[in-house]
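Morning F.,

Quick status update on the modeling queue. The single chain you submitted on Monday has been processed. Sequence for confirmation:
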Amino acid sequence: MGGRIIFSSSFLKFVSMKIGRSAYTKSKNLAILFAYIALPFVLYFIPFELLNKQNTICLIKNILGVECPGCGITKAIISAIQLDFTKAIEYNKIVILVLPILIYVWFKNIIIIYNQTSL
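Structure tokens below.
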């Protein structure tokens, strides 16, 4: 038998499944990583007039007629991404707390996905 190794067919199927899953997971992680990186750029180029024309979906504002603490946070975050911080604070003052947390979570997820992809 001089140095020849014989693998069972079930072992070869297991190895090919692991390699296939690994390649699929890596490509999926690359797609998610691309989406995470592209999202701020897409939000930067959203025409702000489009957001101002939209009706609100806030149940509290629609039913009770008063703004809830979260009203305007989407517009505020997009304004901050577009570097218009005064308008962001006008839409919702909570953006001062939410935006740094959002940026932290965004960077943390990018690092986690990048580390999973590079393995």
